[in-house]
Design a protein that fits this description.
By secondary structure, the protein is of the alpha+beta class. It has two domains: about 15-95 and about 230-235, Aminopeptidase, CATH 3.40.630; about 100-230, Aminopeptidase (3-Layer(aba) Sandwich). It contains five helices and eleven strands, in the order αβββαβββαβββαβαβ. It has helices at about 20-25, 55-70, 120-130, 185-195, 210-220; strands at about 35, 40, 50, 75, 85-100, 110-115, 145-150, 150-165, 165-175, 200-205, 220-235. The protein is globular, with a radius of gyration of 17 Å. About 40% of the residues are buried.
Length: about 240
């Protein structure tokens, strides 16, 4: 399975963005996962993502199979071709956006940092809004901000995949009862301000079918970099 950029957009940003999970697991977030030769994956309570090194070929897939064990599964993104014997159990087409200077830094006075004590509320919000994979230890990947109304967490956003020079903004979600107030955009600008403060560039992903999110990201100044697939692949049973 492969994802191809279109036109000049594919040239925006570093090649690290073509295999973000590998780049994150190689240096910044290596302590949150395991590596075996040319393959790596996160602890499942942190993230379902894994990766094979660029250009690793059959050796990388063999290394990944050893990490997963027979029949084990992992979420991949970027350009990849699953070898014979591997099964693709779930896939969706995604898009990757990157900030090229359009995102305005805007710390939000209503946004509060979220920590380990907030994880049950965060998981509950994720269950209601389904922004994408989020586990009990995802919060260890970066900083998260939330907005509460009447003591209830109604919106959040934070940092997921961190790689040299870049940080992904993820888990952008708003309770259905609080939508239409611009909370997602405010939180993205606030999280982006923290990313910029470290001298890094924010990027993010969305499903191609999530037209509302894509419209918001473009309005905030993000630029489409490429199309990229997401797929759960399962290792051979033997």
């Amino acid at each position: 399975m492969s994802g191809n950029g279109s036109g000049g957009s594919a040239r925006i940003g570093s090649d690290l963005l073509d295999n973000v999970a590998w780049a994150a697991l190689s240096v910044p977030l290596a302590g949150l996962g395991r590596r075996n030769g040319q393959a790596a994956l996160f602890d499942p309570e942190v993230s379902p993502f894994g990766a094979v090194a660029p250009g690793a070929g059959a050796r990388g897939w063999a290394d990944l199979a050893q990490l997963l064990g027979p029949g084990g599964s992992v979420l991949l993104t970027g350009d990849f071709e699953a070898p014979d014997g591997w099964a693709v159990r779930m896939g969706l087409d995604g898009v990757q956006f990157v900030d090229v200077g359009g995102l305005i830094d805007q710390p939000d006075p209503e946004a509060v940092p979220l920590g380990p004590a907030d994880v049950p509320e965060m998981l509950d919000l994720v269950a209601r809004t389904k922004p994408g994979p989020f586990g009990p230890r995802t919060i260890e990947m970066g900083s998260y901000l939330g907005i509460r109304r009447d003591g209830m967490l109604v919106a959040m956003a934070g940092e997921r995949l961190s790689l040299p020079g870049y940080t992904e903004i993820s888990a952008v979600c708003t309770d259905p009862a609080a939508r239409g107030q611009g909370l997602a955009g405010r939180l993205i600008r606030a999280v982006g301000a923290g990313v910029h403060a470290r001298g890094q560039t924010p990027f993010l992903h969305a499903a191609v079918t999530n037209t509302n999110a894509i419209r918001l990201y473009e309005a905030l100044g993000f630029v489409l970099r490429r199309q990229t697939p997401f797929a759960v692949v399962e290792a051979p049973q033997h």
